[in-house]
Structure formats: structure tokens, C-alpha cells
Amino acid sequence: MTSSIPIPFAEIDTVFLDAGNTILCWDYVFASGLLASEGFPCAPATLARAEAAARPKLSQLISRGRSTEGQQVFLAYVRSILDALPAFSELAEAERASAAARLLRAIRTPEAQDRLWSHVPPDLPPALARLRERGLRLVVVSNSDGTVEAKLAAAGLRDLLHSVVDSHVIGSEKPDRAIFEHALRLAKSRPERTVHVGDLYHADVVGARGAGLHAVLLDPYGDWHDFDCERTRDVAELARRILASRKSD
């Protein structure tokens, strides 16, 4: 493993945040219900662990130039999650493929998408509020389908953010440096004083670094230990690290 250069948190004045599975997380209770309806009962905690473990595989697809918004990429992500579930692993390959396709159709409806990406960790809003109170600018930078700002508003997070950048709206998605440069201009921020946090190495870390930003990877279970970047369990933990470095402000 290659060590990353420590981030000078005391000099950070802008935080870019991924949306999906960073500040808008899966509702695992709802997702477990979808699985049960397809014949695969699963505890929400078991599903949460399987979903997090699937993220490195999703990241690898992005490293090959695949879009996070493409249906085949999302199908591969869903399949990786299902493969980690005991009830699913007992099926023959044809049955697995059929079940994954059915679940994808159930998830991809607009109603299910709104519900799936709707959980806000309880300690997130106060963490964002503390960052704002200390003068940091907060900008969401998300690969999305044009709906992320509405989802943030519905979740009660939009008023805590200075700006929202949606890849569908601006025509550039992570890891393309253009989406980060657009966000920097919007925030009137400098890359060396900005940190981006997200859940996918090849979209969030590689993309942010390509635009000259610092980057932190979400890693709640230690699935990314071989990657050369700062990691954090969640955004609230990152906020504590940033604020602790600014105690003298």
C-alpha cells in the first residue's frame, strides 16, 4: 500500500460532498423489504454490510470508463450485493441472473429510487451545521440523474449546503475533473483548500485529485485498506477531524 500525503485539515475552508451513500444513504429497511418480496429475506444490517462490500467492485467498473449512472453498471453493483447474501449464493447462476434483473427493475422505478436513497445518518445534519458555523463552504458534487437537489431538499439537507452540483445538469460526471472545476468556480474556492469526501475511490478520490483537491474516502467497514488515501467512517467523523484542527479559530 502506498501512503498518501496527510491532508492539512487546518487549511481547509471548503468541503465537497458526494451524495449517494455519503449524505443520502440507502434505506436498508426498505431495501430489505424489496429483497423479501423477491423471495430473499435479509436483515437490514446484513444488507448494509453486503452493500458496502460491493463498492470496491463498483469503483473498478468506473476505473474502466463506465458511468455510475449506466444500467449495466448498476446491475453489476446489485449483483455484487446479492452474491454476498447466503440465500442468494445457493441458487444456480441462471436463477441468480434472473433475480438480480427483477430486483433491478424494482429498484429503478422513480418511487423506489426516491425511497432507496433517503436515509440521513442522525449525526450528519448537526455535523454539517457545525462546519457551516465555523465558516466552511459545503457543496454537494454528485453523479446523478438531475434529481439530487430535490432529494436533498426532501431529506431536509438542502438548507445546510451552499451549492449542489448534479452531473446530469452540467454534463460532466466524476471522475472527470470538469465537474470539480465547475464546483470550485461555484464555491469561489481554491483546490488546495478544498477536500472532497465520497464512497467510491475511482470516482471520488481519483477525480478530486485530478482537479487538485484533497480527498477522503468513506470506509465504514475497512473494505478499502489497500488504497492510498485518507479514510473515514462517515462524514460526521470527518467533520470532527476538520473542526479539531481549527480549534484556535
| Assigned CATH architecture of the largest domain | 3-Layer(aba) Sandwich
Low-confidence stretches: none
The H-level CATH homologous superfamily of the largest domain, spelled out, is HAD superfamily/HAD-like
Distance between the terminal alpha carbons, to the nearest Å? Answer: 35 Å
CATH top level of the largest domain is: Alpha Beta
- Overall SS class: alpha/beta
Please tally the helical runs, counting DSSP H or I stretches of 4 or more residues: 12
Q: What is the average of the pLDDT values?
A: 91
Overall number of domains: 2
Describe this structure as you would to a colleague:
With 249 residues, the protein is of the alpha/beta class. It folds into two domains: 9-24 and 120-244, Rossmann fold, CATH 3.40.50; 26-117. Helix content is 49%, strand content 13%. The protein contains twelve helices and eight strands. It has helices at residues 28-37, 44-63, 71-83, 86-89, 93-107, 110-116, 124-133, 148-154, 167-170, 177-187, 201-210, 235-244, and strands spanning 14-17, 25-26, 117-119, 137-142, 163-166, 194-198, 214-218, 230-232. The chain has a six-stranded parallel β-sheet with strand order 5-4-1-6-7-8, sandwiched between helices. It starts with 13 loop residues before the first strand and ends in a 5-residue tail after the last helix.
